[in-house]
Write a structure and sequence with these properties.
This protein is an alpha+beta fold. Among the domains are: about 150 residues, Substrate Binding Domain Of DNAk, Chain A, domain 1 (Sandwich), CATH 2.60.34; about 50 residues, Membrane-bound Lytic Murein Transglycosylase D, Chain A (Roll), CATH 3.10.350.10. The chain is built from 3 helices and 11 strands, in the order E-E-E-E-E-E-E-E-E-H-E-H-H-E. The strands form 3 sheets. It has a 5-stranded antiparallel sheet, with no helix packed on it. Strands 2-1-4-5 form a 4-stranded antiparallel sheet, with no helix packed on it. A two-stranded antiparallel sheet has the order 10-11.
């Protein structure tokens, strides 16, 4: 496939090229989330030109246990490289949780990954200390791929510099401290407000009783009425209290996806689950009665497999 590129599928479903296939190079991208409180990100690698429909799937990297935060706040670092033998290596990591995933693939001439080079996509967590890639990279000589504008809703920044240890995002350290401080101040303010309301709200004042000195109020004699028989109370059967049913709310993890023109539930299931046969799970999660009828620009929830 001439002029083919190695790239990823971004949030809007389009193909984002990273580097030319067959050319020894390395690239670094900083990705971010597109939904609030998003706890996992799946990075799908493809081989193609411009359209994702014509691109061939290579593999996926799944980063989980991302701390819940506002969209655009978490940073997932992706490093992709090709060595002299045509081996493709990709590594994704998230700094706060320490999650790291790696993928090493050899791509044949026909564009399909070799079966013996794919580690069954176990995606097991690699140790964060002492990790070295399967092949070393030299410094780039400046002959990188042409600049491609990143998608505004998926990429926060891009950079080709390596090594990565010199770039420590300061805002990722400061932001949790600011959030904690704001929560503490908010709780203190709420407590002070409740205290002030309980102590300073005016209540009803009881009128004092006045004694009437030596004055004795004369009352007319009241004729005695015959005693009224006291009714005998009937025994009542106490009913056992009925325990209230607790509603257990189960939160399903997943991501939101905006349907593009030409998408089908089979294609969406293949993109997120690597198989089209889980389209029924997506339809059931979004109350879609007829899986053959979906509408463009509609947002649907993709649960975690």
């Amino acid at each position: 496939m001439a002029d083919s590129r190695i790239g990823i599928k971004i949030a809007d479903g389009s193909f984002y090229p990273i580097m030319e296939e067959g050319k020894r190079a390395k690239k670094r991208l900083v990705l971010t989330t597109v939904n609030d409180r998003q706890t996992n990100v799946q990075i799908d690698l493809y081989r193609g030109r411009e359209e994702i429909e014509s691109a061939s799937y290579i593999g996926s990297l799944l980063i989980e246990n991302i701390p819940a935060a506002a969209k655009g706040s978490p940073e997932i670092e992706l490093v992709v490289g090709i060595d002299d033998d045509g081996n493709l290596t990709a590594e994704a990591s998230e700094g706060q949780s320490g999650e790291k995933r790696t993928l090493s693939v050899r791509i044949d001439d026909n564009g399909t990954p070799s079966a013996y080079d794919i580690p069954d996509f176990d995606l097991s967590q690699e140790p964060s200390e002492g990790f070295e890639p399967d092949f070393p990279f030299d410094e780039l000589d400046g002959d990188s791929d042409e600049d491609v504008p990143p998608s505004e809703d998926f990429f926060s920044e891009t950079s080709d510099d390596y090594p990565l240890e010199e770039e420590v995002p300061r805002r990722s350290r400061i932001r949790p401290l600011l959030i904690t401080l704001l929560v503490i101040l908010s709780l203190a303010f709420i407590g002070l407000l409740i205290y002030c309301l309980m102590n300073y709200l005016p209540g009803e004042k009881a009128l004092p009783l006045r004694a009437s000195g030596n004055e004795v109020e004369q009352t007319a004699p009241v004729a005695e009425s015959p005693p009224v028989p006291v009714p005998v109370p009937q025994a009542t059967v106490e009913q056992a209290p009925v325990p209230e049913r607790e509603t257990v709310r189960v939160e399903v993890e997943g991501v939101w996806y905006r349907i593009r023109w030409g998408d089908t539930l089979w294609d969406i299931s293949s993109s997120f689950y690597s198989t089209p046969w889980l389209y029924g799970q997506i339809a059931e999660e979004n109350n879609i009665n007829n899986p053959d009828i979906i509408f463009a620009e509609q947002k649907i929830f993709i649960p975690t497999k």
